[in-house]
Amino acid sequence: MITFFSDQQALHRDVKEVLSGELVPSFEVAQRTDIVLKAIETRGLGPVMAPAQFDTDAVLTVHDPDYVAFLRGAWDEWHALFPDTTQAMPYCFPARGFRSICPAHIEGRLGYYSADLTAAIMAGTWEAVWASVECALSGQQQIIAGEKSVFSLCRPPGHHAGRDQMGGYCYLNNAAIAAQAYRDSGCLRVAILDVDYHHGNGTQSIFYDRADVLFTSIHADPAWDYPHYLGYQDEIGVGDGKGYNLNLPLRLNSTWADYEPALLAALERIAVFQPDVLVVSLGLDSYEHDPISSFKLDAEKYTFMGQRIAELGLPTQFVFEGGYAVDALGTNTVNVLEGFQQY
Ligand SMILES: [Zn+2]
């Protein structure tokens, strides 16, 4: 299986986030991809290739052009005003009762385009975010060219990013961009399976009113974990998209005994949909020792997960999302990919 990765992705590093009331080093660190690359090499998964270059036009069917322009220029604008700081972060949001307008000042626009305090922008963020998108698009092109499977080792991750919103370590939605690219390449139906511990709120919102892209997600009950305000079972899509959004929230501390039936239900829905291609938002934070999550999957279960996904028999693009138990991240990621290949 080919992996796409760019060294540029490490330019977004040493970020801080607000967690439990404190400004702390982000769990989303550059070392995450280092350890995955090492496992890919050690276990001989296949070649690691640099992505092709793409123009920003490639994402404008998924993301709002004003938002993309904001992301691209935010650091320079912030740094000119606050030269002694290392990252740009909002402190004010258009919450209930405010008007949903985009202000002129960079602080106002940061709040307008942010969902939370976990997606700071710094020098190098845009270059990393764009390289991550290029890994997603290069993977998509490989599948269109006839590969059965591909791994886009995207970082920063993407599934919390909405059409015009960043949050949850995500800026541009790599999986959604790939899914749309399949549609633009002539695929009639695209399925997305999101196995990250957290609900893929950005991906859901992008395709919520569409019947051509099925979104399925297994995640922690948002009543008790991030992103809290989306990801409930009664969100089934709207308009043409009604019936094409499947949320399978699980209780905190769920084990494989809870997880496997949900996975099989998602796969069954995908099989009925008869897509041309599958995009897997591959988060590994369902792992038992993940520092910010509560599920109890051990390393072996990721091999089972890969095997179950392979049973669909679909061309499949894996897109890297979360997973913060860095020491185990390489093993768990490659377990899924090997499980898929060995089936
Ligand atoms: Zn996650």
TrEMBL record:
Matches recorded under Gene3D superfamilies: Histone deacetylase domain
Key words, A-Z: Hydrolase, Metal-binding, Zinc
Domain Histone deacetylase: 28-338
Pfam families linked to this entry: Hist_deacetyl (PF00850)
Superkingdom of this protein's organism: Bacteria
Cofactor(s) the protein needs: Zn(2+)
Entry keyword Chaperone: no
Family recorded in the similarity comment: Belongs to the histone deacetylase family.
Official protein name in the record: Acetylpolyamine amidohydrolase AphB
